[in-house]
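Recall the central idea of this unit: under ordinary conditions, the amino acid sequence of a chain determines the structure it adopts. In this exercise we apply that idea directly, starting from the sequence alone.
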Amino acid sequence: MNAYEFLFFSDNLIPSPDKLTALDVLRKSLALGTNNSCIYLFTFELIEVGTSVEFSIGPVQQKNLGLKKPIVQLEICDNKKLVVLCDNLLQVLSIPSLEVSYNATKLKNVTSFQVHNALYEKSLELYIGTKKKSIVLLQLGDSKPQLIREISLPEVPLSFRVDGDALCVGLWSRYLLVNCAPDGTQQQQELFSLDDGQRVTPLVELVEKGEFLVTGMNNLGIFVSAKDGSSRRPPLQLDSNTLALACASPYVLSLSDEFLTVHSGLHYERQQVQTHSVNGGLSLALAREFARCGSLSHIVLIACQSGDLQAALPLPWYSQVEQMLREGQVSV
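Accordingly, the structure predicted from this sequence is:
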């Protein structure tokens, strides 16, 4: 049974010889980052004509940060800001001008980040992983950055996700679950270690409220409860060299350099639902809040090293049921 339809999105959004290194999508805004610190900002429309779907891409805004290093992470915010991480330097830009915002605040020694609160145009709250073996929650605005919370760690955080007061953190040698109480106290729990002999790039994604998904040994995707670190679902068998994860309930999408695999997170379904071949897979981006634009939800963009972009569109439930009937998986 297929869960997604794969469509061509674009192959020429970034001029040669630039290479795509990062992307993010919020509603109808698309941000791309390249290997030489260039940012490209687009708007796009999804046009449905009968059963056919096409993408229309609007004019581009462009900015070069001048760092000559790859952009490793981007996030478009609700308050018309774009957070950019390049060469361990974090900057906040205004949309659509791409001018540096918040009195040109630049934060150094940053390894990763997650936007926590972007409800107000004049301020932004960010969780930031640092080379100083910590994760800090900062409020950025027109004045000096304000420290709200600091979490000391045994190693440099490589990736993390936040769910309320819980953080799932991927370090070089292990995963940690950190719970922060309202009174400021913290509890850290080691989930499991990572074997140096079988190098695993720690990836963390939020599946749904109260649950994370992390990459573990033997190419397993392990579900982790935000409450106590337990796993209430069987692990997923991922492809080797998994580069990115995206969670669009009830499915989990994993990307390697050769395949995009759709997994079911439901107990009663076979886990690998669909496999799609890609050429030089690079990253995934879930089109957050796209349903608010009056169109499909759970669209996922697939980025390839060549700069090609594909879109994975969820098939309607009636189409999936028709497939299951044809394949004899269900009967009436």
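Residues 1-19+238-332 form one domain.
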